[in-house]
Structures are given as structure tokens and as C-alpha cells.
Amino acid sequence: MSKIDEMLKNEKVEWKKLGDVCEIKRGVRVTKNDLIKNGKYPVVSGGIGYMGYINKYNRDEDTITIAQYGSAGYVNWQNEKFWANDVCFCLFPKKEIKNKYLYYFLLNKQYYLYSITNKDAVPYSISKEKIAKIDVAIPKLEVQKKIVNYLDEFINYAEIIKQKLQKEFELRNRQYEYYRDKLLSEEYLNKLINKYDLYKYDLYKYELKETTLGDLAQVNRGASPRPISNFITNSEDGVPWIKISDAGLNSKYINQTMQRITREGAKKSRLLKKGDFIISNSMSYGRPYILAIEGCIHDGWAAISEYEENLNSDFLYHYLNSNKVQNYWLKKMNTSSVSNLNSDIIKSLPIPLIDKNLQAKIAEILDKFQALTQYVSGLLPEEIEKREKQYEYYREKLLTFDTKCTSGGGYHLLSKDYISLLTQAGALVGVKVFEIEYVLLKDISVYSSDKIDVTELNEENYVGVDNLLKDKLGKVNSNNLPKTGNVNLFNEGDILLGNIRPYLRKIWLADINGGASPDVLVISLKDNEKKKVLAKYLYQVLSSEDFFDYDIKFSRGAKMPRGNKSKIMDYKILIPPLPIQEYIVSILDKFEALSQSTTEGLRREIELREKQYEYYREKLLTFEK
Question: Mean pLDDT, to the nearest integer, of 568-579?
Fold first, then answer.
């Protein structure tokens, strides 16, 4: 037999009406105008919480209260002196019943009190008369005291457990915040890159797609106005007329021309802009040059333009100069009936399409090697030859892409051996292949402007600022779904940021598609940045205290501050290589999972203690009539 059963065994109780064993008194009215911001005593009214504070009280501590209106029937125990408003009942027991015992007894009748409220009233109400008619079991005072002590001890123990768990949660959360800020710092990111040869672990996953030059650029043959002598001019208004003789033997660029043609002649020729490529299509065919000027070309040239979206110009220059491409031209010329390098042949050239940032790194390395072949003053002939061979070796190696498994959609992955070679080549000429980049948020993302009709949404995938949780705890389902209109569309991987009262730190990484209210900013990675920046990495950056301090600093308004959308997009972000992002995200995911498990454990433990308390309270306070 348990201690409780032993204590209550054969215990005889007396049943009386509540109105017979205690006095039920209403409070005295105060209004919102009477409240004081830093008042000393709380005002207990018809709600669950305090109405506010004033500097006087009309009830002492250790008083039972029952709300008359609003949360009608709500039973509470007041631990301090307070002001009882006129919609609050206070109970004062007589000597035969202990104050705290009566509180626990009524608390055990909480749902009954709710059931006898007047639900036709707005707001709900409960009358003094109904409260007074509640039957109360009155055991001996000694038993009442034991019941109170038992329940007090249980509540104190549960509170200690709750505080310990809360401290554990706070510790985990601080630990998570600390490591997130550390992992996202420039110092640590640089240390990661310098410390680990990540290519050795096959972490750099760069895709390559085989396509053709004609799929990536415009290829056109030049044209000549005839007779050309009629269009040559010395006028400064003339258009540069590009001939083979204008191209230096070892030049990369066409910087000037010996002749110009009239504007009328230019209309009958092929006018090119700065940055376009030209290739000789006869004589020493296949030699590429980049235009550093605007000019016209005759039909001895072919032009490559409109390539910039997919190709880095320096990368394309080195690629077109490679033995691989020159051999391709030679093979095509030998197996066709044509005597020059026509547009169709140039369009058919296979091109390895890779990340543009990687193209730029390859080009930078080859530029450095090529520069070494030009600075030869004081070198012996064999040393000059060695440099030229070194440049040619790395040009052919770096422009012949070693791939491994297919990743789908016609793409292949560059092998770790290729990435290793690229890194080693960069080290020889002082080029860091993988490094940290500073960007602004607006460089990599945009605010979503797409709309979705609210009729397509539900409580789960509609996000208003009210159902985003403060302190970066995600979101809950909405209980305020609009009935009509359009809202901002968000997709999985977008970041939703509460824009009202930034100090609440409301942020969520979407794991579903849906719609958001205007007070929630939807931040979407630009399509061309999704291979460069992980959504999870960006979410971690925008969850940092540094970002929220920045957001708060530039917010506008006093009573209801809002984030400055323009300033938010000016926030500076460190972008390391993708493998470093993945590494950081994997670590922070573990910390987040640990924090969430602690939170879940806290919630479950509190629920368990509450159920235990309710079980024993009911057991202690349920008597037979």
C-alpha cells in the first residue's frame, strides 16, 4: 500500500458547500488609465496573467483567486500582495479548512469550474452563486496539512527538475551559438582552407558538361564592303578595320588598327564589340585574339561573341590556344573538302562547361605560367625552354578534364586527381584555388516577388510573422490563415525572416513550399548562385547574432520597429568553397539536433511531471461522499 493510500485509509471527510466554508469577495475596479509602468503591485483581473501594475494593493499574499470574466473560472494562487480588480473573486477560508488545501481542491475542480461558466456571455463569465454551491470535501486539519505538504513537495521537486533541464537547454543553446559564430568567422574559415587538403578527401564536387561552342556562343564569319578601297578613311569617326597584320605574333589582344573604314562601310561588314573573340580562318588558322576595341572584321576572320554567360574570356582564350583545340582544327581541315576554318567547324568544337569561378582560377594559373615565359631576361636558353614547356604542360593538363562518375543530366564530376593537379599548379605560381570570398547578401539572393493565392494554402504552409517563433526556434502552424488575396510565394530552401521587431530573432529555413505574409521576408538564392552557396549555410549565417545585431541596428520605428529591407541586402557575408560550407553545416546540424533533442527532452520531462502531479493531486483530493 502506498503512503497516500495509507494516509487516506479510513479517512472520514465532511462535505460542505464552498459558500459555507469561505467568504467570496469581488475586487475593486481599476482601469488601464490607473496602471503605472513601473508599479509595485500586480493587478489581478479576468485574465490568466496580470493586467498591469499599480502602487497599492487590496489583498495580501497567499490568496486564492478565481477569474469572473474573460478566462472565467480560472483558479490561481497569488504569492505576493496584489490588487484584485472587480472581475476577480478572492476566497478567504474559515478555520475549519486550510487556505492552501482549498486551493489544491479547487484546482482539481478546474475543468468543472470552466463547465459551469456562462458561455452565452461575451466574454464568458461565472457567478459568485455558482462558485458558492461547489461541494468541498473537508478532511481533518491534520490530513489537510499532509496533503498540502505532499503536493508542495512534489511541485518544488518538479520545479527543480524543470530548472535543471532549462539550464541544460540554455547551455546547449549557448554552445551551439558559440560554435556557429566561431565556424563562420573569417579567421576559422581561412584556417580550415589552409589546414586541410580537402581535395584529397574527394570533397570538391565540380560538375562538367560536354557541349559545343555553338551551343554557348554566337559564331559568325566576317564580311567586307567592296571595293574596300572606297570605304577606307582617315577620319577619327571611322571604325577600326581589323586585319591580320594588326595582330602581334604573341599578342592576346587586338588593341589598335592601322586602318579605319567609314560608318557606311561598317554597315556592310561585321561590327564587333570589346571582349569578342576573333579567329583567323585561313593561313595560320585557329589563332584566337580578344578585342580590346570595337571594330569590323573581313571574311578572313571568324567572330565568337555572346559567350559571357557561360564562359570566362581568359579561360576560353587558353582553351582555344591549347594543342587539343589546334589538333581538332587540323583534323577537321584534313577530313573535309573546305580549305578554311568555316563557322560550322568552329561551332562544332567540343567545349567542357564547368563552374565559371573554376574557369577563372584555371585561367589565372595559366596566365601566371604564360607570364613566366615572357620574363626571360638573363635566363639561359635551356631555362627559357623549360618555362615554355612548363606552361604548355599545365595548359594541356588543366584543359584536359579528368572526370569520374556521371552525376546525371549529361553531367560528369571532375575527379579528385584533377582537383589535386589544379591545386598543385596554383601553388607553383602563387594562386589559391580555393579561398574565401566576401559578398553582399544582394549579390547572391533576392526577395521573392512571386505570388500565390491564399486559397492554395493551409495552416501548415502559410507563414505569418505570428507563427514564426522567436529566438530562431522555427515556426508553428498558423491559426490566422487569410481568406482572400495573394501573398509572397516561398519554396523549399528559402529563408523566411520576420521583419517586425527584429529583436525577436524570428527566422526559419523552409522545408516545404508555401506562402508568407508581407511582414515575413522571403530570401531566395539566385539560380546562378545555388551551385556556389548552400541554402543551409546561408541560413546559419543569417541566424548568427552578428546578423541580428546588424538588422536591429538599421531597423526603423519605435513602437513597432521593422527591418530595413535595403540594408538587410547590404549585409556582408563570407562565402567559403562549397566543401567548407558542407563541413560547417554538418557540424552545426549536429549541434542543432542536440539542442532540439534537449528541448524535446525538456518538453517531455515537463509533461511527465505535470501528469504525475495531476495524478497525485486527483488521488489525494478525490473523496467518496
Answer: 88
Q: Which residue has the cell 472581475?
A: 87
Determine the Cα–Cα distance for residues 313 and 366; give it in Å rounded to an integer.
13
Query: Dihedral of CA 350/307/241/371: which sign?
Result: negative
Are 516 and 451 in contact by the 8 Å Cβ rule? The answer is no
How many CB atoms lie under 10 A from the CB of residue 297? 26
The helix or strand, by DSSP H or E, that contains position 264, with its residue range, turns out to be: helix 263-267
Q: What grid cell was written down for 206?
A: 565540380
User: Could you tell me the strand order of the sheet in which 486-490 lies?
Assistant: 451-453, 486-490, 514-516, 462-463
Segment 298-317 shows an average pLDDT of 94
- Which three cell numbers mark 235? 577620319
Q: Who's near 226: CB < 8 A, 6+ residues apart?
A: none
Q: What is the pLDDT of residue 61?
A: 94
How large is the angle between the packed helices 141-183 and 99-108, nearest 10 degrees?
A: 70
Distance CA 188, CA 182 (A): 7
Per residue in 17-40, pLDDT (tens digit) is 999 999 999 999 999 899 998 899
Nearby residues of 179 by Cβ (< 8 Å), 6 or more positions away: 587, 588, 591
**Nearest-CA neighbor of 250 among 98, 388, 145?**
388
Given a contact cutoff of 8 angstroms between Cβ atoms, the answer to whether 59 and 78 are in contact is: yes
Q: Are 476 and 467 in contact (CB under 8 A)?
A: yes
**C-alpha cell at position 528:** 546562378
Angle, vertex CA 188, rays to CA 187 and CA 192, nearest 5: 120
- Secondary structure letter of residue 32 according to DSSP: G
Q: Classify burial at 177, counting beta carbons within 10 Å of its beta carbon; exposed 0-12, middle 13-18, buried 19 or more.
A: middle
| Residue 430 region by backbone torsions, left for phi larger than 0, else alpha for psi between -120 and 50, else beta | left
pLDDT (tens digit, 9 = 90+) per residue, 179-233? 667 766 767 767 666 554 544 444 456 778 889 999 999 999 999 999 999 999 9
Q: In 3-state terms, what secondary structure has residue 324?
A: helix
pLDDT at 202: 47
| Helix, strand or coil, per DSSP, at residue 22 | strand
pTM: 0.53
d(CA 51, CA 32): 8
